[in-house]
Amino acid sequence: MKIEHVFFDLDHTLWDFDKNSDLTFQKVFKLNNIQVNTTAFLEVYTPINLKYWKLYREEKVSKEKLRYGRLKETFDAVNYNISDAMIHKIAIEYIVHLADFNYVFDGTFELLNYLKEKYQLHIITNGFEEIQTKKMINSRINHYFDKIITSESVGVKKPNPRVFKYALETANADIEKSIMIGDNLEADVEGAINIVLKAIHCNFNNSSITNPKILTVTSILELKQYL
């Protein structure tokens, strides 16, 4: 395929969100003397967080409701008594400290060095605007990318077609010569395919994929086979 522009998702695709998030919770809990087993907390939190992000993509909850609700439900589920004021405090501090930890997936720098010689690279992310650029700077990957498009700057979230169309316009990219790469099947891959933008699914967790037509990789360096 003749490609000139490569659009990446950030969290769970290049930036190791789960690892960085786990370390952030450990730090925030220690700062606030929250006596809860972090491993047990995160086992409950992870699916709740995914649920809230889906609601957020669908415009069913606000950013503030996402930040509070995912914590409130988790603390309730692990039977930890905590005030609303402390939940709000933790929600804020979590965002403040999230970019303190900046692990990217193994092979990220090798891949980006390889791709930067051949393509214009861009980011399309649903993540919060105030933290995404900071994550990229602190993890030393920001200089690889020409355009960083956040859903908040567009006003809607992936998989809304407006996000992808805005990104293509901002990058001055021809849709036939562009490709989207991301971990989220609904937001990144199907969202792109719905506007006839080529896509590759980063299935790093080896989840079951029912659509055999979706191009999938299970490791980041496997992308070099297609680009």
Under CATH, the homologous superfamily of the largest domain reads HAD superfamily/HAD-like
Second rung of CATH, namely the architecture of the largest domain = 3-Layer(aba) Sandwich
User: What is the residue-averaged pLDDT?
Assistant: 95
How does the major sheet shape up? Answer: 6 strands, parallel
Structural account:
The protein has helices at residues 17-31, 38-57, 63-77, 84-98, 108-116, 129-138, 151-154, 161-171, 185-193, and strands at 5-8, 120-125, 147-150, 178-182, 198-202, 216-217. It has 227 residues and is of the alpha/beta class. A six-stranded parallel beta sheet has the order 3-2-1-4-5-6, with helices on both faces. The mean pLDDT is 95. Helix 1 (17-31) packs across helix 4, helix 2 (38-57) packs antiparallel against helix 3 (63-77) and helix 3 packs across helix 4 (84-98). It has two domains: 5-16 and 104-225, 3-Layer(aba) Sandwich (Rossmann fold); 17-98, Putative phosphatase, domain 2 (DNA polymerase, domain 1, Orthogonal Bundle). Helix content is 48%, strand content 11%. GO terms for molecular function: 5'-nucleotidase activity. It comes from Polaribacter cellanae. This is YjjG family noncanonical pyrimidine nucleotidase. It holds the Pfam family Hydrolase. InterPro entries: HAD-like_sf, HAD-SF_hydro_IA, HAD-SF_hydro_IA_YjjG/PynA, HAD_sf, PGP-like_dom2, Pyrimidine_5'-ntase_YjjG.
